[in-house]
Amino acid sequence: MAPPQKSTLVLIMRHELRVMIADRTLPVIAALFAVLLLYGFFTGLHETRQREGVVRSLVAAQAKTNADNVALWRRVMTRQQPPERFANPVDPSMIGGSMGAQYAILPTRALSPVAAGQSDMLADYYQVTFGSRAKFLEAGEIESPWKLLSGQFDLAFVLVYMFPLFIFAISFNMLSVERDQGTLRMLLSQPLTLPRLVLAKTLVRAGVIIGLAVPVPALALLITRHAVLDGAALGVLVLWTALVIAYGLFWFALSALINSLGRASATNALLLIATWVLLVLVVPVVLNLAVSSVHPAPSRTDLATQTRLVTADGLSRYQNLFSQEYVDRPEMLLPENGHLEVAPRMRAFYLMDEFVDQRLTELLSRFDRQLAAQQALVDRFSFISPAIVANEGMASLAGNGTRRYEQFKQQVIGYHERWRDYFVPRVRNGIAIVEVDFAHFPRWSWQEENAAAVRTDALIKIAQLLAVAAIMGLLAAWRFRRRQSV
Question: Contact at 8 Å (CB) between 132 and 314?
Answer without folding.
Answer: no
